Amino acid sequence: MKNNKWNRIVLKVGSALIAPERKGCSSRYLLHIAKFILQCRDMGTEVILVSSGSVAAGAHLFKNIDKPSLPIKKAMAAAGQNEMMSAWDRFFDFPSAQILLTHGDFQDRERYDSVRETIFALLENGILPVVNENDVVTTDALKVGDNDNLSAMVAAAADADALIICSDIDGLYNKNPHTNDDAVMIKQVSVIDQSIYDMAGGAHSSVGTGGMQTKIEAAEKATSHGLTTYIINGFKENSFEQLILGNNPGTIFAPYAKPMEEDLHWLTHTAKAQGELVVEDGFEYPLEQHSEQLTSSELLEVHGEFSAGDTILVRSDDGKHKVKAEANYSSCLLNFITKHDNAEDEPDFQHHTGPLVSDKNIAVIDH
């Protein structure tokens, strides 16, 4: 490649490219994507493919179902996953491997490290990892929900250089190009702020679940980890030809000049909060400078069930989320302490606890 000297990339392909008519997998759009993967590998770039499409690929096997229930969707995913893997396999003369993940695999650090090790072992042996969310077993508590964000998590876990997200439009526009003729595409984004999120609309495709909003979320996850991120039109062969030439065919998101440290990135963008502490409005932030002051004397309410070591949110009583942090105590103990500290005839328990959250890694959510 002329300019894009990638060692490792993650390529995210959506359902609309895999099974555009929900009648099984189609090679219509996959041929030029497979060609791109082959060219990357020939140039020494390792590729990890995040491929949606199992539900869309399996839908045609279930007759006369206009609005499938959740169990039927899981069955569609189970049936369609084989078809999707077979569709990719027929394009390549090298082996591929299926990796099915849930958010729980990223939430648990031991499983997260295991995912990393598996991906690295596959790449070292010339095997193409094909990643998808495990729709068959995932629950609301465990699901990522879209493969845009999943691809960013995989890219961070795999220490990739770039994330390429395929869309049904050429890139990020200042307004929805499907409904606005005067929409202008943004070629480069240096900082992802609220104005960038405001440009993102809902999902246009009837097949996929990830609209531009989730692609921006994924770009924020990836760029904060130091990855260059692209949103391109996956339906156009020229998009991939331009990437091979080192050009930008869509919107490019610049990586952070100083990426987040691994543990902080995991806490900010991967770990799900298991509960919430509500503290007094007068409590001073940033928390990392005052964590020793956050004791039960500032604690007003405890929401959710969590154990010591779980990720939680801490917010002031005005309703704004402030930070993500690691709980030093369980919700059961904190509920007990809060209840008794607020009772006039009960002993004071607040001096029997230290800081309520760890100051090792704290992610600021709202300023």
Automatic annotation (TrEMBL):
Pathway: Amino-acid biosynthesis; L-proline biosynthesis; L-glutamate 5-semialdehyde from L-glutamate: step 1/2. Catalyzes the transfer of a phosphate group to glutamate to form L-glutamate 5-phosphate. InterPro entries: AceGlu_kinase-like_sf (IPR036393), Asp/Glu/Uridylate_kinase (IPR001048), G5K_ProB (IPR041739), Glu/AcGlu_kinase (IPR001057), Glu_5kinase (IPR011529), Glu_5kinase/COase_Synthase (IPR005715), Glutamate_5-kinase_CS (IPR019797), PUA-like_sf (IPR015947). Substrate binds at S52, D135, N147. It comes from the Bacteria. This is Glutamate 5-kinase. Belongs to the glutamate 5-kinase family. It is found in: Cytoplasm. Coiled coil: none annotated.
